[in-house]
Design a protein that fits this description.
This protein is an alpha/beta fold. Helices cover 59% and strands 10% of the residues.
């Protein structure tokens, strides 16, 4: 074997890996001979065995010295040291037995003491590097095919052999030791039996898993827990998230991912700390998971990155709540949003987009004013600050500002309900610029400001289609609150700093709105009765809040995170802590910005100079797109009616004429596919029937997978029929709204032609 003179650790370990199977084979032969009278060839074989053991002993002594010096293999030192000590002891025992001619005892020593020792060393050293590399490449190829998003995260990653060390447990199953930033080695699994540990973990969580159909599993590690989950609960749908790329790379050297994960129940596999990919897991989980759900984490991830795990669990819970909240919002406001998007086309076509203002207010700080109770404390300072910063009223805060005699430079409005219209009723705001989103309650912009301009949301599919939005159009991220929209507008215009005022985003000392805000007293008792949650405030204490308000806070924080180059300041003294903002008293802000001069007409002048209407050719194209909707709607309705007629035939056909039933199903699939790919469906019904479509998407795999013809036909009628009926119920509403939208546009064009319309 290799001497001390020429020593390459990896080469030596590979030599030992190759040598151990031959040594084990020789040990079996010699042990068998020792139980019987020794033949003429015994002693040469015994001599070879003894020489092999002596060579191994000396080699491993040299290996041990190098291991103590070699950081890349440091974790091998402990088991190798134990092996060298055990081998010396057992070798000595063997020699004594042979000296005493106790040959049966010598045979037992080889078979029951030395042979397990050599087998354990083989497990400790593991496989040759070449074999592990081949397995890694095979796993990568499978991931590329089955989970391409995971593959994309891993394809350029390099194994960290200094911090993630594969090392066998006592039973030979692979373990991994992870060196933390503090220099502590964390063994990820039991040093004795990782499989038993995983089985006990599943038993502990049996109550949580009972009756559940779906699990988000935080952590994959070397796959023991995932394997036990799929073995114990074979029908459980598994959505796996592994935050640590290095752990997965280590796993891919030791196990066959395809054998473990290539089954229909493994729905998703996401790796790494890319937030978009992680959030995609949440979205797909909520969109397609059918039945009860649970979120579990395998042990020891707290020791690697407790903060990331905490954020994952919190964000998963928030994402689920957010998804449910979105579905509820679409149920409640879907018709209103659709109506507003259609009706406001009259203004979209005849007012300018925000496009031309991009970067035009560079160097101007912006104050975004909310209607929180802290606004009252800062109102006089805000009045003075108007000469030094752009004052933006976020939605209903306009009423509070007007109450105190302050006209902001700009109003931003996006809420699509009647309550938003009530805010603007009987308000003198004709001379204040108003930035709107097309989903805003249409009466808000009917006859309010003479200085209207607009921006679009990335979730407003109706306006996206009707306006033919492209890469050059101003499309903002959809926001829970008008503050989120106002932040994006301020950054778009180039404002050097965004200051948040009256943005308490909670209910400090049980106050909900600033004085002058509409319905403050009427809603106070109801709001506070639902404020059972707590959120940290800027002073380090806690404020009462609701789930809705908490979602709004997190949404604003996510929008702020989109603009790391912009300075954000929070002035609400008693409000919620807002991540990525610095707190500063409003008086201090005034003193700091006192030298900045912002003219009274800064917003109007910028609009006059930089904003322009759409070119005439595009305006005509947009008008044509709207007036073409009635005929498209009629064609879509006929297709849905045809689907429903065929669905009605399926139950009888499935029981009496199976061949015709199959052909009818094919016809339904064809007609249905054309209908749901149509402009009308994707423009309107993704908004109007969001919950129904989500349920349809969850149930469709069951329909597709059913092999019994009668049951499949019944599922067709149930699943497709339910959504088709919901569509038919909404079509008359859409038809009436489209007709009225066309009338509003024609009227608006006539008004503009006469010179009486709103202007920039």
């Amino acid at each position: 074997m290799t001497t001390e003179v020429s020593f390459d650790m990896n080469e030596v370990l590979d030599e030992v890996r190759d040598f151990l199977p031959r040594l084990l084979e020789a040990g079996d032969s010699v042990a068998s001979m020792l139980y019987n009278p020794a033949g003429h060839n015994f002693w040469p074989l015994f001599g070879d065995l003894v020489q092999g053991m002596d060579d191994l002993y000396r080699t491993m002594q040299t290996v041990l010295r190098r291991l103590r010096e070699d950081g890349d293999h440091a974790l091998l030192a402990e088991p190798v040291e134990q092996f060298v000590a055990d081998l010396a002891r057992r070798f000595g025992e063997l020699n004594r037995y042979m000296d005493d001619e106790a040959y049966s005892d010598a045979g037992d020593c080889i078979r029951y003491d030395l042979q397990p020792l050599f087998a354990q060393l083989a497990a400790v050293l593991g496989e040759k590097e070449e074999i592990r590399r081949q397995r890694l490449q095979s796993n990568l190829a499978w991931l590329k095919e089955r989970f391409p998003r995971a593959y994309a995260q891993l394809q350029h990653a390099e194994r960290d052999l200094t911090r993630y060390i594969l090392i066998p447990s006592r039973n030979g199953s692979m373990n991994v030791a992870v060196r933390t930033a503090e220099g502590k080695d964390v063994y990820f699994y039991s040093r004795y039996e990782p499989e038993s540990e995983a089985a006990r973990w599943v038993e502990v969580h049996a109550a949580e898993l009972g009756g559940k159909s779906n699990v988000i599993l935080y952590g994959f590690g070397l796959g023991y827990h995932a394997a036990e989950l799929t073995r114990t609960y074979p029908d459980l749908n598994l959505h796996i998230y592994e935050p640590d790329l290095q752990l997965l790379l280590a796993a891919m050297e030791t196990i066959d991912l395809k054998a473990l994960l290539d089954r229909p129940q493994v729905k998703d596999f996401v790796v790494g700390k890319d937030k978009d990919h992680r959030d995609g897991l949440f979205y797909r989980f909520m969109k397609y998971a059918k039945g009860e759900t649970a979120t579990l984490s395998i042990p020891n991830y707290d020791k690697l990155d407790a903060e990331w795990k905490r954020a994952f669990v919190e964000d998963a819970k928030m994402a689920i709540q957010n998804y449910v909240s979105h579905e509820n919002m679409y149920d409640k406001f879907g018709l209103e949003w659709t109506r507003n998007a259609l009706y406001n086309m009259a203004y979209n076509i005849t007012t300018p987009p925000i496009t031309g203002l991009k970067g035009k207010l560079a160097g101007v700080p912006a104050v975004i004013v909310g209607a929180g109770p802290s606004l009252e404390r800062d109102i006089e300072t805000l009045r003075k600050l108007k000469r030094h910063a752009l004052i933006i009223a976020a939605g209903s805060s306009i009423r509070a500002l007007k109450h105190f005699g302050i006209d902001p430079h700009l109003i931003v409005s996006m809420d699509g309900g009647y309550a938003n219209y009530a805010v603007f009723q009987n308000m003198e705001i004709q001379d204040i610029p108003l930035l709107y989103v097309p989903q805003v309650e249409y009466r808000v912009i009917d006859g309010t400001s003479r200085h209207l301009f607009h921006v679009f949301f990335n979730t407003d599919y109706i306006t996206m289609y009707l306006m033919g939005l492209g890469a050059d159009d101003p499309v903002f991220r959809s926001s829970h609150s008008v503050t989120g929209t106002a932040i994006q507008a301020a950054v778009w215009m180039g404002c050097s700093e965004v200051i948040l005022a009256g943005q308490d985003l909670s209910y400090p000392v049980d106050q909900i709105y600033a004085e002058g805000s509409l319905y403050a007293e009427e809603h106070k008792r109801d709001v506070l009765s639902r404020a059972v949650l707590q959120v940290e405030n800027v002073a380090g204490g806690y404020n009462r809040t609701t789930q809705s308000m908490l979602l709004t806070l997190r949404d604003i924080e996510e929008i702020i995170a989109m603009f790391p180059q912009t300075k954000f300041t929070n002035t609400s003294k008693h409000g919620a802590k807002i991540n990525r903002t610095g707190w500063e008293d409003m008086e201090s802000v005034l003193n700091r910005l006192g030298r900045t001069d912002v003219p009274e007409r800064v917003m109007i002048d910028a609009m006059v100079e930089h904003l322009s209407l759409y070119p005439e050719a595009r305006r005509q194209a947009l008008t044509h797109r709207l007036v073409s909707l009635p005929s498209q709607l009629e064609e879509f309705e006929r297709a849905i009616q045809h689907v429903r007629r065929n669905l009605a035939r399926l139950p009888e056909l499935s029981r009496k004429k199976p061949d015709k039933c199959v052909n009818t199903m094919f016809a339904i699939e064809k007609d249905w596919g054309q209908a749901v790919q149509s402009i009308v469906f994707n423009t309107f019904f993704n908004v109007l029937l969001k919950r129904e479509i989500s349920h349809f998407d969850r149930e469709l795999p069951e329909v597709a997978g059913e092999t019994n013809l009668i049951r499949k036909a019944d599922l067709f009628v149930e699943v497709v029929g339910r959504l088709a009926r919901a569509i038919e119920e909404k079509i008359p509403h859409v038809r009436d709204m489209v007709r009225h939208a066309i009338e509003r546009l024609e009227s608006r064009i006539q008004i503009n032609a006469s010179g009486d319309g709103h202007h920039v």
